[in-house]
Specification:
This protein is α/β, with parallel strands linked by helices. It contains twelve helices and 21 strands. It has three domains: about 1-45; about 75-280, Rossmann fold, CATH 3.40.50; about 285-455, Ribosomal Protein S5, domain 2, CATH 3.30.230. Strand 10 (about 250-260) and strand 11 (about 265-270) form a beta hairpin.
């Protein structure tokens, strides 16, 4: 008879205690412990017997230099941007977790990849726990021609998914989503910590043994992390985040973790009527939307991941109607905005205390590069003076607390992107080294925030 006991597991970090406590001893988060029933039946041994070790328990010590990597050929997902973010395609046997808010387009992206890969003649299985085969088919029809080799399995029970995998040799597996998986051996409703952990462990064992790459779709919590145990992120090889503003067409895909490549690559997609399309020249698209010169708009040369991006910063400074002035930033950190306003007030004598300040990054993108500071300051100045800025001037500089403009990383790449898009002037920090400037671009070096006004109007 298996011994049954209850333990409490943190839904964030996976730490467990034998008694319920309000604060997790592992990650100090409050109210994250949930009860789980554990049956100690010695079940763990079967995981060793099956798959993972090929049934034989013998240590395989070998010289690292003799480990062959010839067998590793990456599978192209058919999506240029996704392949790039993954570091050049899908590694056999890897687990890729894709997280994102509801409605952002996770299922669309996954189905698109599934259709693309199976149209190359590979066997692909799409396990749909959330949508019926009819719904998947309807979505597929919006995206394009439905390949005959693409299999769909409307199933949430893990043993049935595993037996489907044993019946046929698939090249790629999709699970949409991990929160719907149900492992009958384990107590708890689908989506609970232990269910997610054990279901993914069972699928991982199969995937690693058969070199089957797996894409897992994961929901995220309102704090923005992937719902379920944090251990899930340790179990998989790659964690991708799909983000953007649902009301805008642009989506950003980036890797939060990647065992096979860098995490600095960024993919940009646009959601269209017939699925997601890769945006190959994001700067051109983002600038194309900018329209004519108006006050409060400045172009920043940001670097997102490995990629320089020209993006429009829009500021609106208006008299506060209510007692407390409002500050709001879409796609921009509000604390950073407040800091920049404080610097403007203290170092330039710009009194914005009784004004509302709104800041917006065009296209609904979120970009955290500190080099955006200079464009933000320029946009705020332009809006409050109601003077438009030149459309062929761009900005890249970090603003420090004492009002100094600091140099930014990888200026050469930013300059060549700006020159490529026809920018004539670029405002940068006067503190760094003077780089080689591409033809057609004029560099204007400034040292302090108080110098900006002289240069831009
Ligand atoms: P979906 O992939 O279902 O999001 P998720 O799986 O992340 O919850 O996509 C949701 C939205 O995408 C939906 O509101 C409709 C829109 N959409 C398009 O605009 N074009 C399309 O071709 C498809 C398939 C969806
Ligand atoms: Mg979905």
């Amino acid at each position: 008879m298996a011994k049954v006991r209850t333990q409490y597991t943190c839904s964030d970090c996976g730490a467990s205690t034998s008694q319920w406590v309000g604060k997790c001893p592992g990650c100090q988060a409050w109210n994250t412990l949930v009860a789980e029933t554990i049956a100690d039946s010695g079940k763990r041994t079967h995981r060793y017997a099956e798959g993972v070790t090929g049934g034989v328990l013998r240590p395989r010590v070998m010289p690292l230099a003799e480990v062959s990597t010839d067998k590793i050929t990456r599978l192209s997902s058919g999506e240029v941007e996704l392949d790039r973010v993954l570091g050049g395609g899908v590694v056999p046997g890897s687990l890729i977790l894709l997280g994102g808010e509801p409605g952002i387009g996770k299922s669309t992206l996954m189905l698109q990849v599934a259709m693309m890969v199976s149209s190359f003649g590979k066997k692909v299985l799409y396990v749909s726990g959330e949508e019926s085969p009819e719904q998947v088919r309807m979505r597929a029809m919006r995206i394009g021609k439905v390949p005959s080799d693409l299999m769909v399995l409307p199933e949430t029970r893990v043993p049935l998914v595993l037996s489907a995998l044993k019946e046929e040799d698939y090249s790629l597996l999709f699970i949409d989503s991990v929160q719907t998986l149900d492992q009958p051996e384990i107590d708890g409703a689908p989506g609970s910590v232990s269910q997610i952990r054990e279901s993914v462990a069972a699928i991982t064992a199969h995937a690693k043994a058969h070199a089957l790459p797996v894409f897992l779709v994961g929901h995220i919590t309102k704090e923005g992390s992937i719902a379920g145990p944090k251990v899930l992120e340790h179990m998989v090889d790659v964690v991708l985040q799909f983000e953007g503003d649902r009301n805008h067409a642009y989506r950003m895909l980036r890797a939060a973790k990647n065992r096979f490549g860098t995490t600095s690559e960024l993919g940009i997609y646009e959601m269209l009527g017939d699925g997601l399309k890769a945006v190959e020249n994001p700067s051109e698209v983002l600038l194309g939307e900018a329209g004519e010169a108006s006050s409060g708009s400045a172009i920043s040369v940001a670097l997102e991941g490995a990629r320089p991006l020209l993006i429009e910063m829009q500021a609106l400074v208006s008299t506060a109607v209510y007692g407390t002035p409002q500050r709001s930033g879409t796609g921009f950190d509000l604390r950073r905005l407040n800091m920049l306003l404080a610097v403007l007030e203290k170092r330039c004598g710009f009194k914005l205390g009784s004004f509302d300040v709104f800041l917006n990054l065009a296209g609904g993108l979120k970009i955290k590069d500190p080099a955006n500071d200079l464009a933000v300051v320029a946009a705020i100045l332009s809006s409050s003076l109601d003077l438009p800025l030149d459309r062929d001037t761009c900005y890249a500089g970090e603003v420090g607390l004492s009002g100094e403009i600091r140099p930014v990383a990888r200026l050469e790449e930013r300059m060549s992107e700006a020159a490529r898009l026809g920018m004539k002037r670029m405002l940068v920090s006067g503190h760094g080294k003077t780089p080689l400037v591409p033809e057609g671009l004029k560099l204007v070096a400034i040292k302090r925030v108080s110098d900006i006004q002289k240069v831009i109007f």
